[in-house]
Design a protein that fits this description.
With about 160 residues, this protein is α+β, with helices and mostly antiparallel strands. The protein has one domain: Heat Shock Protein 90. The chain contains four helices and five strands.
């Protein structure tokens, strides 16, 4: 039985930190509908969770706020748009952490955007005309990552 989310490339939700589960469920359902393998789906879940968490914690200052998630396959590319109505913030301008420092000398936090950049091929940002942000995550080479029916889904 197909669900409405399988056919809907767009999720609009007012969410707080306690509401990340429906967003994650939406990503899982859309990835399955697009037949994306388990490894790529896992990477996508991590990246989306990190970006949306940043939107909620930093953009909306831990209060519920509007989040829009759009997941599409464009040819051989998986494209995810994450939109909010929070103050402008460009994650592509965040400096990568200094991984050469010993753990005890590293500042708390600051690994999330780095992690996102490890999980996807491209991260881009634009300020929305009506206010807010659009973060776009791109994963290339999706045709090689399509889960085969009956396989364990580990095509990567």
């Amino acid at each position: 039985m197909r669900t409405l989310m399988e056919d809907c490339p767009l999720l609009q939700i007012t969410a707080g930190l306690e509401d990340l589960a429906p967003i994650r469920d939406y990503i899982r359902v859309r990835a399955a509908a697009l037949k994306i393998d388990a490894s790529t789906t896992y990477d996508l879940l991590l990246a989306v969770t990190e970006i949306v968490t940043n939107m909620l914690v930093h953009g909306y200052q831990k209060k519920a706020g509007f989040v829009e998630v759009e997941v599409n396959q464009e040819g051989n590319t998986l494209v995810v748009h994450l939109r909010d109505r929070a103050a402008p913030f460009d994650p592509t301008r965040v400096k990568p952490p200094d991984l050469s420092l010993p753990l005890e000398k590293r500042p708390l936090g600051g690994m999330g955007i780095y992690l996102v950049n490890q999980m996807v091929d491209t991260v881009s940002h634009r300020n929305l005309p009506q206010g807010g942000n659009e973060i776009t995550l791109v994963i290339n080479g999706i045709s090689a990552r399509i889960a085969q029916e009956g396989s364990n889904g580990n095509a990567r």
